[in-house]
Batch of 2 targets.
Target 1
Amino acid sequence: MIDETIERRQRTGEFYTPLEYARLGLQYLQRAVDLRSDRIRLWDMAAGTGNLERVLPTALLDRCYVSTLLDDDVEHCRRSFPSATVFQYDYLNDDAQKLPSALVDDLNDPTLEWIIFINPPYAMANNFERRADRIDKSSVSMTRVRELMTADGLGAVSRELYAQFLYRIDREFRGRRATLAMFSKLNYMLSTNDQRLRDRFFDYEFEGGFLFPSKIFPHTKGSFPIGFLIWRLDRHIPLIEQKIVADVFDEAGRLLGRKEIYSAPRSELLSNWIERPPCTKKFPPMSSALKVGSLNKDRRDRIAEGFLASLMCNGNDFTHQIKTALLSGPYASAGGMSITASNFERAMVVHAVRHLERATWLNDKDQFFRPTAPLPTEFVNDCVVWSLFAPSNNTASLANVEYEGETYRIKNNLYPWEGDEERFAAQWLRENNLSLEARAVVDAARPIYETFYARWNELDRKKFLIETWDAGWYQVRMSLKAAGLLDDKTFRAEHERLRLKLLPMIYELGFLRSAFDCV
């Protein structure tokens, strides 16, 4: 049973700002704006229980407007901040006629300077069914502002509540002297779904701010950066033309360093670097190494001519790192592509690049980009070898696969050794010069395969669907591990050594651009 308060916060996207980070935000805001001026007005239009207002100087509360959606929050804020103008207001649905007259008068005064100090709700309309363990958000973002955004051609981002707040704030304050000081995820700066938002109106000048881990907020899921970033709404520079650098704090409030947040157009993303051949031939779609995804509603069961494997590469940031894998059939859902001989090397580079850097809370929203320089042959070859023997190489060899009334033999085209028939990866390894580090990985993998074949009768071949000679790296490792026969210490050390060789190069070649500098 979900606690009622937690349920409401999850449903409406309300995650109340911890006081220590609200105080820190005030310190950064004081550096950007002279809060002592009597010409300053502040409005928090998503105040909730008023955690942000708790840290404000008493003198500023006299010039502060505090609005929130729920009756009990309004009463709480009125008791807590008697000198402020507190009122109930639905910023995404109510119009200006419901604003207090004092606020209307101040909005009409061109001599005033405004601060929007806000932690907007973070929720998105989905097609969820209500269950005990999952919160229905299907109607949360169906607002009047969303209707305006949709009519304005802003597309999918109009479903996001924080984006709706930003849209109305822009319409309300564009042309005024105003500063936006906001706690939020970084999607509005980085997400591909938010590109239209950046193109159409979010082009403000960055004034400073900091990042901290999302787990500071109770009941949030996942691990990602929250930003308190300050923007001048009356100064306009496209984000891609700005150098945006924020301080980074850990859970204990310790300064770790500084991180550049790199915002770029879709044309520069890694997802647009690789050729995606047309897929016309039916083939069993894979939802994992061994499972055919025949029950998917949005089933992707087509492959290209010359199909070798499938690259599952959903999304373009570290959030989707776990959804980056190699499969022996088309990925059953969105985000997959056919690998053929013509795009094989680029596909292996993309697969490696998306895995080489470890995912952390700080880089969770960082995007992968097209390389900014020609790729050295050794780098490409190292990526191919690293990918062929990566844990995310889930290619497999499967016999007698039934799919829609037909029986298929799924070959493992990424089998790395000479066998009964020629396999693409074996041929590629034979024909290309490998670095010492890549050759060490191949040599360390060979004894694992030798053990696999030597102990064949001791393996649970039925469980891992092992029936043919060209078993996949996944089948080999998992069956040996289940039988207690996997000795891969030497291999893992060599594979890690190759990763560490490649890691700095993905920054040098421009695949990752949001650098972090320790203090």
Target 2
Amino acid sequence: MNEPQTAAFGSWKSPITSDLIVSKTIKLKEINLDDRDNVYWLEGRPNQGGRNVIVKLNQAQDAIDLSPSPYNVRSRVHEYGGGAYTAIEDTVYFTNFSDRRIYKQVGGSDPQPITPEGEKRYADLTIDRRANSLICICEDHCDREREPENSIVSIDLKSQTITVLASGEDFYSSPRLSPDGNRLAYISWNHPNMPWDSSKLWLKDLETDDTQCIAGDSEVESICEPKWSPEGLLYFSSDRSDWWNIYRVTRDKVEIVCQLAAEFAYPHWIFGLSNYDFAEDGTIVCSYTQNGRWYLGKLDPETKDLETFDLPYTDIESVKVRKNKAFFIGSSPTQPSAIVQLDLTTKTTKILKKSSAIAIDPGYLSTPVAIAFPTENGLTAYAWYYPPNNKDYITPAEELPPLLVKSHGGPTATASTSFNLRIQYWTSRGFGYLDVNYGGSIGYGRKYRQRLDRNWGIVDVDDCVNAAKYLVKQNKADRDRLAISGGSAGGYTTMAALTFKDTFKAGASYYGVSDLEILARDTHKFESRYLDGLVGKYPEEKQIYLDRSPIHFTDRLAVPIIFFQGLEDRVVPPNQAEMMVEAIQNKKIPVAYITFADEGHGFRRAENIKTALDGEFYFYSRIFNFQPAEDLPTVNILNLD
């Protein structure tokens, strides 16, 4: 056995390479079950151009690809999509990304379109057996001069006639049929609210057409995930108590099923979320998060007792139940995400599919530590800290490691503890990695989310800065080698931190926002009024937008930045990055700009993921003056000299 050697942080040789990450990993999403006990899921495959494939696990435990190339099972409703397919008996219905049409696929036959060509998008598919139809969300982009119109529609599977079931609200989601097929529950919300701010739960009688609002009419309540129990009771999650807890409707009265300082839901960024489902004994199998960690439990709706399963997973999503078995996507800091089957009787688990076949020696893995740190106004914020770790190296004497601070997107999202080889890429090379759950993140209650109200660009930036300073004070990071990186909204926080603060010495923006005013005027419908709550009303409060936009304060910038941008991005258009690059270049500050012609908002292709990961590491190696252990493709860094 070789003795560990001493080497400078950043120059450690690691077996976790970008080639390994993109060639041996997939993204697991959206579990579905049919009435023949088959299990389905989506696989996002970077090595196939990032396309999503429906995989079916039959009763013989054979995993079969159903989606032939070039079909890409992905919705574009709200741009973020989700809820892209459903299954019944031996048939799947799915939305195809390139033409936005819904297709029907029986067994392994070729998919056949059931919606016409055009500018309509679909998501959140639900089978209506009684009417032989498909109920789903429709987003109509036919009139380019107007905002897209959203509605709930029913598509007759024989005639392919489309009937509108609900319209008039700005947004709809989660159409769910009662077991008898007579009633339809769904959620709606209107500008300027986002669904985690205020949404309504509706109940429509499909025979009489009567519709009533069941919950959410107070304008200060967020409703998530309506579902019907086998007995025909309507359940949903609400944050009326500050936390997304589970409620149900009985005798026209709403009652709480479990009251806990925990979140039983996730914000409605995408369709098809499933955090709970019903077992055959009447209990509810549910996932919930406390202090940034997810758990799986079994809830008795009558006694209100919650039993938590003893599982090794800290991230749990896409919970589905059939008979006495639960299925979910589970992961932990040291285990890649997997499709997991849990026997509710024996409480034993079985892994059906892993997102990665890579076997990494634990000696190269960093396990996150939950930290709570002081921030502005006497408050506390949270983060996950991954220390540098590589069994082949020991810490250099009197040297502190560089630190990469991660600002997650959203900004209404969260830092995940799921096994992430991209994080381990950094820590196994000698970087510390700090994933910050700044004020506004989910998982800590509505009040914590509301810290960001009208304070985007302030609270998130302060929390990222204070998190880094906290580790510096703990002698866990080199104050002269602090970097910050983020994508989308996290890219904005990154640029704001580099512009308005002097804590970080370098940064990386992935499809980030530099001009809030342009974002308010030039983004898609779903987020077109998002900034009303995060910043202020536009154009009435235009000055706030100007004051918080890094593009107007490039004179304050004094540190190097690298930008990564998809040229097909409709959420944050490329001009946001291009304006910053030009301004920084003119200041003679080191800057790099890497574009991808075939990517939108977020990178899905293997070659692009690899380029971005290695490119960011190479950039820091030149800025922080360390020698990487491997030869990396060079990046054109302007003004480096």
